[in-house]
Amino acid sequence: MLNLTDRQISSLLDFRAVAAILEEAYADLAHDRAAMHPRQRTDCAGVRLSTMGAVWTARGVAGVKVYPTVAGQFSFAVLLFDLETNAPLALLDGNELTRFRTAAITLLAATRMARPASSKLALFGAGLQGRSQAMALIERFSFREIDVVDPAASERWCDELQAASGARVRIATPEAAVRDADIVVTATRSPSPVFDGDWLAPGAFVSAVGTSTPRNRELDDRTLARASRVVVEWAPQSIGEAGEIVLWREDRDLAKIVDLPALYCGERAWAAASGHDITVFKSVGVGLADVAAAVLAIERARAGEERA
User: Which of 74, 141, 142, 172 could form a disulfide bond with 147, CB atoms 3.0-4.6 angstroms apart?
Assistant: First the structure.
């Protein structure tokens, strides 16, 4: 059985390729060539064990991601099975898989929903995931400005991001960051909204990826009320886990919520980016995304072994 470490996975994956295999996986989910079960959580004495998984028959694999939460910290692992042999295929460290698939799903959604000529990014959270979100997006968008909202943001990292992107990067207040941003990304663990939805410019695209519990939310009711569409990964899981939706009280309009399977099967059309409509993407993380990223890592590891 193949065993891949986080270090190996980091060298094998890139955001564009992960976004591409995620698109393939969601298209297969929409056409009954994949299925998954929602996250299951078990709590005991302050420790939590979470699992989520998927069967991807189009690729001949099934897998499960498992992780404990101890003192607020996560440790991830993904186990894949070969459906042809019905035997374990690979065991992968899951920290880098999670980092890549979370940033790549924002890249996928932004490519579909944000204006192609987006020139300003507002980034909330400059931790590991926030930095990954920025690095994924600069592969697709030619930003002129990137405003970072995080009191602990590293000036050195901002300088590195400026060099990598060609954009002017600065640490900013929430309002200054959001006011004229084309793309807003929230990658925090904040239990409450991190900006006022009235600050959003017409045509803005918002991706919220920082929380996956019904008690926490990074976006306020005003953001959701102003949005013409709120896209989630998979409604059976997202509707119950996304605090933004669970805690949405004012101007609640569930009809504007659509998930990726509905978009990929043609049941609902992708909304083309316009000059006025605000669109929101809310990610909580699903098992199929972990399985898809793991499949890509395994394929590339094997290709490297063959070349060697």
Answer: 172
